Amino acid sequence: MTSLFSSPQTYYNATRNRQLECPPLEGPAQADVCIVGAGFTGLNTAIELAERGHSVIVLEAQQIAWGATGRNGGQLIRGIGHDLGAHEKSLGREGVKVLEQLGLDAVDLVRQRVQQHGIECDLRWGHCELANTPRHFQNLLAEQQALKNQGYAHKVELVEQQDMHRVVGSDRYVGGLIDEGSGHLHPLNLALGEAALAQRLGVRLCENSAAIRIDYGSRIRVHTATGVVHAKTLVLAGNAHLGDLEPALSGKVLAAGSYVVATEPLSAALAETLIPANRALCDQRVGLDYYRLSADRRLLFGGACHYSGRTLKDIAGYMRPKMLEVFPQLVAKRIDFQWSGMIGIGANRLPQIGRLQAQPNVFYAQAYAGHGINTTHMAARLVAEAISLEHSKGFDLFASVPHMTFPGGKLLRSPLLALGMFWYRLKEIAGH
């Protein structure tokens, strides 16, 4: 696994609520399953497998939740982040329905894990999708009807433009769709709580233990600089940071940069003015804005996804004008934290969940396209079901979806996708 960013001083790192002891792998070790990557996917696959009686070792190149898991916007949103209807031809209508339901159930997986194990992660319920244009508002109207047809269990409310002050203290939007079944949380503290749970279940977590080589076969050997894991089964959960470890998978994922800033703590009165009901909010544009309030009333504002592969030297300087377009009332407020992270995106923007064709004892889950908190938990359960030889219709459906390898190799992959996303933004502008 490769490191694309140094560990940042994020708001989440500054407010983490626990430290874990996860010594590096030293020497040989045995396990039923070896997992590469200790983000949400790896941690929750380990939990699901340990609960089913498997012995598990997790190798992490950096620290627990070092990648997108510990840096994301903290929005826990139903669905898998993409319109599944576009895949009805390959999945069938019933297959689409199964995956749509999994996208709803995934949020409940997180809810249950937090509640059952008392994980303190500032979980709050309430989310609103924002419409920047009349066309966006029509999309929300159709989404509301689709949720009704699915029998969605939570309150969903369409908000007209004249009532948007109930949702957000900004004049930027023409409407919104409130969903009380989605919400927001402190992602790093969720991951650390899940890591502690995994350890209680007997999982061995090894930080600073980058997997550098895999010997495939009926018994797999995963090598690090200081040790080797012998296992019957391997799960690759490195997502955007998998690098050269398994090119057949890393070539299907583009690592796109996303950016977040956190303001100084705001007064209770100002915070209530910005986001009256303390929901998470995001818009529907290709280069979307997403934001919410932290537990100590900072505005966490993110977005500006970059597909070029480049990093920003001054994230706050880049993001602050975007934040002020939404909330000009924050012009005098300080930015206390700024950070970046890598999102794994596939060509069709669907999660990639399956097993290697040539190596049936090697499983993978990746490419959540910025919708990872709930989808990782869903993927972890599906992978654990497949490894445990349980019937998993969801795993079989995801595994049946073909995923294109990005053309151009390492050098051209990012520029080509950047060009493609620029085309989508032009179409979005033309559609206004």
From TrEMBL:
InterPro entries: FAD-dep_OxRdtase (IPR006076), FAD/NAD-bd_sf (IPR036188)
UniProt key word Metal-binding: no
GO cellular component: cytoplasm
Highest taxon listed in the record's lineage: Bacteria
Class in the EC hierarchy, top level: oxidoreductase
Pfam families for the chain: DAO
EC number annotated for this UniProt entry: 1.4.3.-
Keyword set, alphabetical order: Oxidoreductase
Molecular functions per Gene Ontology: oxidoreductase activity
Presence of keyword Repressor: no
Residue ranges constituting the FAD dependent oxidoreductase domain according to the UniProt record: 32-385
Protein name as annotated: Gamma-glutamylputrescine oxidoreductase
Native source organism of the sequence: Pseudomonas fluorescens
Lineage: Bacteria, Pseudomonadati, Pseudomonadota, Gammaproteobacteria, Pseudomonadales
